[in-house]
Amino acid sequence: MEYKKTKLFGVLFMSLFFSKLYAGSKGSELCIINQYSQPITIKRVDFNPSDWENKNTQIRDNFQGKTVLEGERVCSHLELNKSFWSNDVSGPYTMYVETGNDDLLKFSTNQNLAFNSGPFTKSISLNQASAPGDSVFLVGSEERLSIYIRAAKPDNTNWMEQLINQNPNLLLNQLIMPATHDSGVYQSSIRFSDNPSISEVVVSSVARKHPEWYFTNDLNITEQLRAGVRFFDVRVGMFNGKEMALFHQNYDWGHGYGVSFNQFLEEMESFITTEGKNEVIFLYLAHAETNESSSSTIKAIDKKEMISTLKSKLDPYFYKQEDGDSLRKVTLSELKGKIVPLLNKRELGTYIDSKDGLWGYVGYPNISPENYTIYDKYSETASPKTLVTDQNNKLENFGGLDNYYWFLYSFTLTGEAGILDIRSLAARANYILPEQIHKMSQSEMKKANIISYDFVNAWQNKQIIDLNFD
């Protein structure tokens, strides 16, 4: 009997050893998103079956042979074997993707990137030198690996000039443009007050350790302009109580500040006088840190000083009318080479004057034909499913072109306990956005005038811009 037990143990041990010490599996999601401007086909997937649960061929079965139309995606849940000793997983594979112009993109990666401790983005090297750079771009977050297949980086510097040449009588309510959320708070600009007020001491000490809770973009202002952004979310506050700067407020943890207001305006001037001289830029001054909107512990901006600074930097480029009270009947071509500040009537109403080129707007829910109105109602959710349902319902009820107001499609998620990192939130939402824009292009859903999302890029912006040229 003793011999039989030993033999049985030996058989079990050898079985474990030769089955790569299988210790259960770990699930993740893989999505392939097409931003190539043409259909793509996943021709082949090379992989080792022993890396996957029960030697499964799911990565081949769910992806190989699939054709993905522009703006669409194919996704699948995948189970990787855990290591018996460490619970680590590894699932390398190579994909061969054929594009609509017969280019073959061959690349290799590992599904275990989906389990990185924090979100990441990176370009992946291709196995052939002839393919354009940035053809394959990875975004990993929260057990999902999103792989964007992209054409060569588009040049969106002069897209409005092209649109004006094609349709000089285009009214603003027929315009569609990409927008940034909290435009002036990007990764290289983030900073926190050196002298927080008493009530901010604790929250500021926490916030300093987590700048990722605040910055909403990788691109600086000039890079955003070159990427095609023409609608900027401008929130002006007081950094250290003495310098006007753009900010992003986290209601639980205080303020994070970005680029100075002066630098922001200087970059606008530089663009509109050089490479963007035939473009139009809209500055959406929606959430100034005023006495009415700020807590008593945060020094509010001086509204008069803010407007004075705005005018001193950009006045020559403002669009002015003697008796204008609305932009509703203004064509895009009339605004060529101009910067249009849109002031919130509730906070900055006393400074609105068309003769000075300072235009007002009324935001949701005060929609009125008498005022230039922007329907801007974000979803306040960390759930991408809820975001899509909520924004698409609003779009169906209030969106479309040719209204007496602009509809802002707010495709941004709001942090909650356990997920405050904006890059992670953007990864949750952005892989879904191309499909929504594709549906707009196919008239499967209404179009929006302004499409705002975090961590903008030239490829996604190009898909939005192309809605104007359908």
From TrEMBL:
Organism superkingdom: Bacteria
By its UniProt entry, which Gene3D superfamilies does this protein fall under?
Phosphatidylinositol (PI) phosphodiesterase
InterPro entries reported in the protein's UniProt record: PI-PLC_domain, PLC-like_Pdiesterase_TIM-brl
The GO biological-process annotations, alphabetized, read as: lipid metabolic process
Mind listing the GO molecular function terms for this protein?
A: phosphoric diester hydrolase activity
Kindly provide the name given to this protein in its UniProt entry.
Phosphatidylinositol diacylglycerol-lyase
